[in-house]
Request: fold
Amino acid sequence: MADPIPTGPYGGLTATQLIEAAKQWDLYDASTEGWRPRPPFYAEVRYENWWGSGATLSQLHELAQNHGLPVAWVPPADVLRDLVKADDAHHAKLAVLTAAEERIRASCHREIPELHAGWKEDYAVTVRHVMAAWDDGHLLAAGCLALAGSEDLMLEIAEVERTRGAYKPLQQAAARGLSETPSPHEQVVLTPIGPLFTKYMPEDNDPIPEALSRHAVVHRMPLEHFNAGHCVVAIMLMVSLLREMEERRTQAEVSWLIDIGEYGEEPDSEALD
Reply:
C-alpha cells in the first residue's frame, strides 16, 4: 500500500482531505502485512490503538453503537481486529474481551494519564484504585468502581452540564452519527455511552438490556448481566474517557502556548487553571 499523503506542510491537505486519506489506511492489517511506519498526520484523525487493526472507522463505530464497546485508546489493535471479525452476537464480542483480558489490562495501564499539576479531579486517583483491584483479581469490584466513576467523565467529554435531566442530552450526544460531527473519530469516544442508558425499569419487568446497562447494574446488580465481559467494558470506558480528557487538555495547553508565542516552554499550570 502506497502512502497516500502528499509531501509538504501538513501534507498539503485540508481537514476533509486528511480524513479521506486516512480511510485508505483503515484496512491496513499489521498481522498480515507486517510492520510499517505510520503515515504522517494519521493520528490527527485516528486513535493510536486503531493503527494496524484492519478496522474501518465505520466498523469501530458499529462496535461502540451496537454493543456499547469502548474502542478509543483501548483495547489494542489485535483485540479490535478480533472484535470486528467475531460473530455479531453480543456474547461473541464479550468472549473476545474475556479471552484478551490480560492484553486489555496492560493496554489500560499504558493509557492512564500521569498525575500532574493541573489535575483537580479525583479521576486519575480513582482509576488507579480500579486497576489495583483488577490487578489483584477483583474484576467485579474494579468494574463497579469504574462504572460509578465514569459518570462525571461522560458529562465532561460530552460537554453536558450536570442537571436533573442530564441523561437525555448525554444520550443525544452519544447518538450522533459520524457524519454529524467535524471530528468523527472523537465521536466514537462518546458512542458507547448510549447503550448504558437504554430504558430499563425493573418495577415494570423490563427485560435486562443486552449491552452493559448502568440502570441494570445500579437498580438490580444482576451478576449474569454484570459479568466478566461487561466488567472489562466498564473499565475500558473509564480509561478511554479519562485518556480522551487528558488528550483534550494537552491540546488546549498547546493551543494556549502557540497563542502566546511560547510553544516549547514549560507551561504555567496556574495560568492554565
